[in-house]
Amino acid sequence: MFWTNIKRVTKAGFLNFWRNGFVSLSSVLVMTVTLFTIGSMIFLLATLDSSLTELKNKVDVNVYFVTTADESDILNVKKSLEAMPEVQAVDYISKEDALVNFRSKHKNDQLTLQALDELGSNPLGAVLNIKAKDPSQYEGIATYLKGDSGVLSSNGKSIIDEVNYYNNKVAIERLSKIINSAGKLGFIIALILSLISIIIAFNTVRLVIYISRDEISVMQLVGASNKYIRGPFVISGAMYGLAAGIITLAIFYPLTYYIGPATVNFFSGLNIFRYYLEHFSEIFGIICGSGILLGAISSYMAVRRYLKV
After folding, report:
1. Nearest one of 74, 125, 303, 283 to 201, comparing CA atoms
2. Rounded CA gap, 277 and 281, in Å?
3. Can you say whether the dihedral through the CA atoms of 109, 115, 121, 124 is positive or negative?
4. Which helix (H) or strand (E) holds 136?
5. pLDDT number for residue 254
6. Which of 50, 134, 189, 269 is such that its CA lies 20 to 30 A from the CA of 147?
């Protein structure tokens, strides 16, 4: 009997949805706008997160040594850094290699190369490129390098000329703030549109209840239970959300396909269309689940308020 009632309520909900097509369409369209905003925030956060990850992967700490530093002292610093649990790898670039790299980088700048030749000596110092296991650990490494331990020569003088970590730190922190701000703004917009969707669906169900008032009266006369009478309206509301979710996903398919190649260049190789396909199940669950939840909640609130049975 229980499953029979479930089937009847579900069937009645489907009939209400299709029978009141124009009324249902208004709720579906409004919910589609809401779900499109939610989906857009998913893609926006994915692209921003990809950019942040790419930036973090490129960031390292470059330690520039004074030109008078002995190679043995530099190698001692390298050894002490490699012993740190936060450090993944340390690459050593000698003074000679640094000069070769500099000449190669400025091979088309004849004035710079001419000025370098006129110096008669190598003005560049050795460099250590440090890669941390996690970007959050760079600050601890930079603090260690700024201290006295492990970065002094045999005669007690500092051999480090510059540590470039803090310039990269500013870029990472700014991008992180952008991501956080975008997430908060998207949440606020989605919340506002969700409330609008609930209000529209609420009034839609209210109108459907009014249209179906004679049918509801007959059901009450034959002894139908409250749940049996209210159930189809909640099912119809959930269908508004499901239909809106499917429409939203259908819109995103050609849209992401079209802008996918552009996002590869602007967002560190992330193809938004490929992301859509690879995470389709999660996106489907979020968008359709949100739509069904919005529709069901608004319909339940409406029948509780206006359907007096």
Report:
1. 303
2. 8
3. negative
4. none
5. 92
6. 134
Which parts of the chain fold into alpha helices (H)?
2-19, 21-58, 71-82, 95-105, 110-119, 138-146, 165-211, 213-221, 226-266, 272-278, 280-306
CB 263 within 8 A of CB 48: no
Q: Which two tokens stand for residue 265?
A: 């260049």
Ordered domains of the chain (ranges, CATH): 2-55+172-306 (no CATH), 67-158 (3.30.70.3040)
CA distances to 38, 50, 145, 263, 269 from 266, rounded to whole Å, are: 22, 11, 35, 5, 8
Q: 192-231 in b/e burial notation, b at 16+ Cβ within 10 A?
A: ebbeebbebbbbbbbbbbeebeeebeebeeeebeeeebbb
Q: Report pLDDT digits (tens) over 58-73.
A: 667 788 888 777 888 8
Q: What is the strand order of the sheet 127-132 is part of?
A: 87-93, 127-132, 61-65, 160-163
Look at residue 94 and give its three-state secondary structure: coil
71 vs 283, more confident:
283
